[in-house]
Each structure stands twice: as structure tokens, then as C-alpha cells.
Specification:
This is Phosphodiesterase. With 301 residues, the protein is α+β, with helices and mostly antiparallel strands. The protein has helices at 13-21, 26-34, 48-57, 61-64, 104-110, 277-287; strands spanning 70-72, 79-81, 86-89, 92-95, 116-120, 133-136, 151-154, 169-171, 173-176, 179-189, 192-204, 207-212, 215-220, 228-235, 238-244, 246-250, 256-259, 263-264. It contains six helices and 18 strands. The mean pLDDT is 92.
């Protein structure tokens, strides 16, 4: 027998029931009609990282220790993001596991059943001794150790002056006829951040060509690029790859190209990503390149 748990964040049962009665969710309705449907109590507080961890462990927040998006250090009242706690290690500050309780996936494997957890929240960094096949979800940082912040490349200098803008703005300076240049900023190295030139050339009424790290990417207005792999040199004969995507959002009098956060490359991560390593490799090779940041649906742009 195979058991599949499909998790939908912020799933509101009353809304689902209304859509079900109206016949607007036929695929989910099929599971209800073939099996059963019932409501169960949500965790307290009803927050994503709390709920998902409660489901994964069968424990309440008092048992697994995840009780808010923000935790405090009782020794000094310093605040930290609960999904990305840190600890001191031989290589400096490292990410720590958000919780230590055993999951239902661990228990299934202990009973002799294979288990896979895809995009499950709070499973970063990977528990390298875990026999569970896993790719982490919510809580996985970007390449710079943040929860994920993209960059807007634009010729419009006024956008950089907007108050309240969460997304960094990189100005595209004129470098020729319909050609503009900026830099894309990567991870830190001894002398400062690693960077690449980011060149945008308008090639048509609604198209541009982006050149970065010897790659040429043709973009059409409103369409996403394929997932790109960009390497940054961070030391002598040492490079760190990343993954991202681009989208052309404006072309004409002004040009705007938005880049998703530079994200961990699952095959060469500076942090522990996914278990076991051969499962991560097989997923990348068989399913094609995929984004890794914990919240891939960008809501900061």
C-alpha cells in the first residue's frame, strides 16, 4: 500500500467545501468521493511552520519547539527566524536544524517502509544521517543565506528612490546603442562580493538579450527564462554555482528585467541540501533543473 500526503498551505476547509459543492475542484473532489472527508483542528498558533512541523512529528509546539516565525534567545532576548536558526561550527556560523523531533517519515523508514518528503517545510538543513529521501521546502535560504530576495535590473533610476521597496534595484547604465550594463551580485569572497557583468541589449519591440557569465539569454516581454545556472568565483580555483530565472517586465522607453533570488544549486551547495545525495542528483537529472529557495513563488518583487 502506498500513502500520499498532499499538503496545501493555508487550506481553508469552508472555502473548499463551497468550491466542492459548486463542482469547481474536480480533482480534489475525486479523492473525497472515493474516500472520506473530515475537518481536524489546526495547530496553535495556526502558522505555516508550526502546522507543518506538527503534522510531520505528531507533536504540538511544546513537543517540537516550533511556535512562531520568530523565536527569541532567552539569554539575551535576541530575535531570530525560527526556520533558520544558527550555531557556531568549525567553519564559522552554520545553519542548525529548526527542530530535533523524529518525523513520521523517519518512523516509516524505521518500520521498513520507504519514505519521501518533497518540499516539506523546516527540513533545511538536511539531516545527513536521515534515511528519508527529501528535498527541503519552506525555510530553505537563497545563496546568500536569506529567505529569498530578487533583484530588479532597470534603466529607470526613479525606481531606486521608491520608499518601501523590498526588492533591491540595480541600475542599467547605457553602454551603447540599445545596450545597457549593470552587475549581478553573488556570494562574498575575501575581497568583497563576487559579481558578474549583467548586460541587457534590446533586440526588438518586445525582446531583449541578457548576457551574464558568457551565457546569452533571449527574453520576450512577460515570459520567464529557463532556469539558469550561474557560477561565482569565491576563491582560488573555487567557484559556487547558483540557480535563478529572469523575466522581462518592461521594454521601450525604459527596460526592466527581474531576477529571482540567486538560489542554492542542489548538486553543489555550501550547506547540506536534501537526502541522500544520490536522490538529490537523480531528482535534478530526471526532473530537470528546479528552484530551491523555500518560497519559490516570489512575493517580494
Amino acid at each position: 500500500m502506498r500513502v500520499v500526503i498532499i499538503g496545501l498551505d493555508a487550506f481553508e476547509p469552508r472555502r473548499f467545501e463551497r468550491l466542492y459543492e459548486e463542482g469547481r475542484v474536480p480533482h480534489l473532489a475525486r479523492y473525497v468521493d472515493l474516500g472520506a472527508y473530515s475537518q481536524f483542528a489546526v495547530s496553535n498558533p495556526p502558522q505555516s511552520e508550526v502546522s507543518w512541523t506538527s503534522i510531520a512529528t505528531g507533536l504540538n509546539p511544546g513537543g517540537h519547539g516550533m511556535f512562531d516565525f520568530v523565536h527569541r534567545n532567552p539569554a539575551n532576548y535576541a530575535l531570530n527566524v525560527s526556520l533558520l536558526p544558527t550555531k557556531s561550527g568549525l567553519g564559522g556560523t552554520q545553519f542548525a536544524e529548526p527542530f530535533s523531533a523524529k518525523t513520521i517519515f523517519d518512523q516509516a523508514v524505521a518500520q521498513g517502509y520507504p519514505a519521501t518528503a518533497l518540499w516539506w517545510p523546516a527540513l533545511f538543513p538536511a539531516r545527513m544521517k536521515s534515511p528519508v529521501r527529501s528535498l527541503p521546502g519552506l525555510g530553505t535560504p537563497d545563496l546568500l543565506g536569506r529567505l529569498g530576495v530578487g533583484t530588479l535590473f532597470t534603466t529607470d533610476k526613479g525606481l531606486a528612490q521608491e520608499n518601501g521597496r523590498k526588492t533591491p534595484v540595480a541600475i542599467l547604465e547605457k553602454a551603447g546603442a540599445k545596450k545597457y550594463k549593470s552587475v549581478i551580485v553573488g556570494p562574498m569572497k575575501k575581497s568583497g562580493p563576487a559579481t558578474h557583468d549583467f548586460i541587457v541589449e534590446q533586440t526588438g519591440a518586445d525582446t531583449v538579450r541578457v548576457t551574464v557569465e558568457k551565457q546569452r539569454i533571449d527574453l520576450r516581454l512577460g515570459e520567464w527564462s529557463p532556469i539558469l545556472e550561474i557560477k561565482f568565483k569565491i576563491g582560488f580555483m573555487v567557484s559556487l554555482p547558483s540557480v535563478t530565472q529572469l523575466i522581462l517586465t518592461k521594454v521601450g522607453d525604459e527596460i526592466c528585467v527581474y531576477a529571482l533570488p540567486l538560489q542554492i544549486h542542489p548538486l553543489r551547495s555550501a550547506w547540506q541540501y536534501g537526502t541522500p545525495r544520490n536522490f538529490v542528483k537523480d531528482s535534478w537529472q530526471n526532473a530537470g533543473p528546479f528552484l530551491t529557495v523555500g518560497w519559490p513563488q516570489d512575493t517580494t518583487a
